[in-house]
Write a structure and sequence with these properties.
Chain lengths: ~575, ~190
Amino acid sequence: MKKLLLGNAAVARGAYEAGVNVVASYPGTPSTEITEEIVKFDEVYAEWSPNEKVAAEVAIGASIGGARAMSCMKHVGLNVMADPVFTVSYTGVNGGLVFCVADDPGMHSSQNEQDSRHYAKASKIMMLEPSDSSDCRDMTKMAFDLSEKFDTPVFIRLSTRVSHSQSLVELHDRECVELKPYEKNTQKYVMMPAMAIKRHVVVEDRIAASKKFADESDINKIEANGSEIGVISAGIAYMYAKEALGDKADYLKLGMVYPLPEKKILDFAKAHKKLFVVEELDPIIEEHIKALGVEVIGKEAFTLLGEYTPAMIKKAVLGEDSPESISLEENIPVRPPVMCAGCPHRATFYVLKKLGLTVSGDIGCYTLGATMPLQSVDTTICMGASVSAAHGMAKARGKEFNKKLVSVIGDSTFMHSGITGLVDIVYNKGANTVIILDNSITGMTGHQDNPTTGKTIRGEDTKQVNLITLCKAVGVERVVVADPFDIKHFEEVVKTETEADEPSVIIAQRPCALLKTVKYTGVCEINDKCRNCKMCMKLGCPAITVRQGKVVIDATQCNGCGLCVNVCPFGAIEKKD
Amino acid sequence: MTKNIMIVGVGGQGTLLASRILGNTVINEGYDVKLSEVHGMSQRGGSVVTYVKYGEKVYSPIVDKGEADIILAFELLEAYRALPYLKKGGKIIVNDQKIDPMPVISGLAQYPENIADKLKEVADCTVVNALSLAKEAGNTKSVNVVLIGVMAKSTDIPYEKWVETVKATVPPKFLEANLKAFELGYNL
């Protein structure tokens, strides 16, 4: 049976068919749906772990325990889990172990554009790269077999356009894979120097064997059309090249991007007058081929930045222009993402901006607190950095500066890697104020549960981490819970806590407006008391705008949250049912 | 020959569901199909673009400039922004709704005037008041299905086939309103 599946759903399908038993992940666009799809299969144990390192370790443990296991993450999540990854490359596996990492060329939803293929080379772990949903299913299934055959974890590398495209996939039944026996084997699984020295030899032998496999397997395929132009490509870039060049080129489609099939590449190069490497982001395949002494055109004809398109490839390889298109004569205003109507973060940033505070930011919907008109956030580096970087900033600039400095971090992000920063503040005599934006969910990636929500990935009730007791347990004595929509009170709380000479945590508690349990009703309307002072416009609510010089509330955008009612100094906004 | 359709709008307008209805209808007709969607950050009230491509064999899931046979726009400014992607002789179907983007709200930019007229000047453009049709159908959230209905009319896939996928894609609770919405769009 063929079905239209999202690339991510096809990875989940492949893993399911391969008999995967345990999947542990942390959400991150564009990888999130893999784990959300896996949950739909009752036979598989799945969880959201607090962060990617924990998730990878859960999968590693499951593999050592004899099960087929997988962990899925976005590219920056791979940085978080890099530590166990480099060492599990040495131990190898028991049950098949797959790490599925989704890159984001073009940065649709990310803070950088890193190329995860570097990790495959650096950690000496095989990496497969699908080009569409059908490949996703096939290669994921294959990855589990390769993992067990070569006694190695295997990477699947996706990119946004593969993860978030739908195409047809042939569905098969689930393989019945028995749990492998667990036997204590300290030489293999205890990585201390004496054992690790021996395992490194095994790793190098494995890479040599997998190079041979790369050359022999048809995962790396040549498609001959009798052309003098040869194109070496992988992933989505291969699909763009096929679309752009059709049968005007021959192709070497690399399904395995590490290690590379050197013999196949050399043979393919010899057979073509002109050779191109078409790969998004870094010139990883290109540099490898050049190191083999082969002349090849790569980044000089393309770019290191962002996504490729078929039109770009057509121009670079064939010199052909794109079809005629209509050009726009006027400047069109951009439409950046905004906090939703009813978003609890809007109120928090409104207050922080009003107080003129320096805001050490983090990763989540609330990163949008850096954009117009709130422009409250000063820094965003990575998950958890809001807390630890603010500690560093305070140590650098001193006590008075610290009184005008706060960290903002979401509930899920705090559990991910904010808590360790808070421990550091307490331990090293900091006096920072950390605001946990507790909206009762992991928001940006589309509502995943986390340790503070009291629900598992399957929606089952579980123990809920209590943020108040947690913060107190690490030694923060000042922990205050406040509703940011009660603007006056919230402002007082922030003023008091930033003045304190000891660490403090404010838990800004109000659920995400998009949660089904949140029932705002009615709409807000402006009455004739309005003096057009535009105070409400400072909220940056997508429902409040100016038409013919007057402030109006767009009823189709308003969800009746009532925040604007609280900021209007003239009582000119009323909530109507 | 591959048919390229672009669905553009503002995050939260329901463009994803529209592209899925379209995608599932064309596979039932035996075509190869690829859909490219946008999730995550850009969904939060930002410009959203999804592509649906179908034909005998489809490689790339994205549509380049000058290649779209149909642009189905949920919002006027987004239709205007997508105009360079329209193929010569292509068709635009646009919902007559304006949603001010943040730079306009903040007073840093102007919402272009008379977009519908400008689109009609350069292309075959149908303007639809999808919100009033959705209201008539009994659910203001069915704007997306009204628009799919309008678009369905300009393909050669029969009415019943579309209805089948609407039934299979939409949650049962909202089915009645959505079927009505589809019909109103189709018969516009």
